[in-house]
Amino acid sequence: MQVDFSMAIGEAMNTQRAIRRVKPDPIDDTIILQLLELATRAPNAKNEQSWEFVVVKDIAVKKQLATENRTLWNMVKKRFEKKGRDNPAMQKLNVATQWAADNFENYPAMVVCCYKGSTLALHPLIGTQYYGSIFPAIQNLLLASRAINLGANLTTIALWNQRRSRRILGLPRGIVPCVVVTLGWPIGNYGPSCRKPVGDVVSLDRYNNKPWLGKSSGEIEIQKDTA
Ligand SMILES: Cc1cc2nc3c(=O)[nH]c(=O)nc-3n(C[C@H](O)[C@H](O)[C@H](O)COP(=O)(O)O)c2cc1C
What we know:
The protein is of the alpha+beta class and about 230 residues long. It folds into two domains: about 10-190, 3-Layer(aba) Sandwich (NADH Oxidase); about 195-220, no CATH class. It has helices at about 10-15, 30-40, 60-85, 90-105, 125-130, 135-145, 160-170, and strands at about 50-55, 110-115, 150-155, 175-185. The protein has a four-stranded antiparallel sheet, sandwiched between helices. Helix 2 crosses helix 6 and helix 3 (about 60-85) runs antiparallel to helix 4 (about 90-105). The protein is globular, with a radius of gyration of 19 Å. Flavin mononucleotide (FMN) binds near residues 93, 97 and 155.
């Protein structure tokens, strides 16, 4: 089945959300492969394409990952609930994460995104190249999903025990599972994300010189060309 990826990139980026609540309806394999083809167009160190993707649809495998996900969520959720006491956004996130924990095995498909190579990342630059070679592809996968209104979420907690994740997925040494992207047709809608104004996180010339503090890009005066 060919799908239409023509959504404008700005719209896809502005409305990309972590979609956790999805229907159990199946996703055509050809759609998943189109998404992963777009994922593999991403930049990566030395074009070594050090990625492997395991598409999980088998209920037995999904159940094992669901148990892993639930185990870690049960261990950390008290801490998240405490953080959410005076924070409605965090409360919403916790409710959605609980939904995901309760329904993990019902996602029609999930993609385990793996890095192929050494697990040692001692120097920060090696670390950057290591994870930097898988996360652009993951973001492509998320944006491509957004473009076709397929719900997607980047999750990590199901992989908290690497030894067990390896066994569940039959991964050999040297294939490091990094992220589980859950996929499914959304129950709700995609919508704008809630982020700090861009000016809060951008410095000019030197760290912490913040002329745009509190401002979004649309609130910044157009500079006169002095050249
Ligand atoms: C490195 C990383 C790890 C994440 N791990 C999880 C996870 O284990 N479970 C989960 O439900 N969401 C996970 N997320 C999704 C974040 O919670 C989500 O991107 C964030 O809350 C922003 O959501 P929004 O884009 O809908 O505003 C992770 C995201 C990143 C980038």
